[in-house]
Amino acid sequence: MCGCWIVLAFCCLGQLCADQSMKPRTAAPQLATNNPTLTTVALEKPFCMFDNSLCPNKSCIIYLYAMKESASAISSQVTDNTSKPLDSTFHQTSGGQLGPYKAALFNVPDCASPPKLADLGDANKVSDILKQYLFRVGDDVNCLYDPNFLAVCNPPLAPDTTYRFKYVLLDSTEGIVKDQTLWSDPIKTRRVKLPLKIDTWPGRRSGDMIVITSILSVLVFLLLAGFLASVSSAVMRSEDSSAETKCVSQTIQSEPRPQLSSE
Fold first, then answer.
1. Which of 68, 131, 163, 167 could cross-link to 181 by cystine, CB 3.0-4.6 Å?
2. 192, 38 in Cβ contact below 8 A?
3. pLDDT tens-place string over residues 96-125
């Protein structure tokens, strides 16, 4: 009897861990450097997060919702009373301040055959592989100001602001939500650095920058030395030429002139 309770406890714990892991995460540093940026956050797409049996005919798509952490917990729901997803936009929610807005939609990632990370060594395949693995929130700088833009708008995020994100599995045929992840952990965009606070001390520079600066300094020194040497040489030649001319002139003046004989 005790053994049954232990097994049940482990099963419940395993389910709890699985549920806790079902939430968007920032992309690995190897795939997305400088993440988050001032206005974007690169997230891993939901590979193998949802049960394939929920959409046997592959009619499902993924919705990505975003909201500021300061938004009210009551307004964090992404579905209405009929289990249909909200169509709230960036403008309608004041950029996620009033609640979640739909930031993107894309096909369900293929869990059976994900992209091969080994192909990242091929420069021609890097862009396609990263697009399959990652989604960058805040990557569209034009959709807010384009009157003809009809797709889901994914405008830049606010700097120095904390956001949360959620993936939703939607049956596009029935128009209802089949499953959804938890809200992500708080993710904060970077803060704008004031010019006075930017550290310009050489110790903060990379080794390459120091080497380049040293080489340029040596080249400038050599150019300056060559210029001074050429000027000095020209002055010396001018002085030598002047002295030689003066000497010749004095020699000519000192030569005796022939005297004319009187008849």
1. 167
2. yes
3. 999 999 999 999 988 887 777 676 667 777
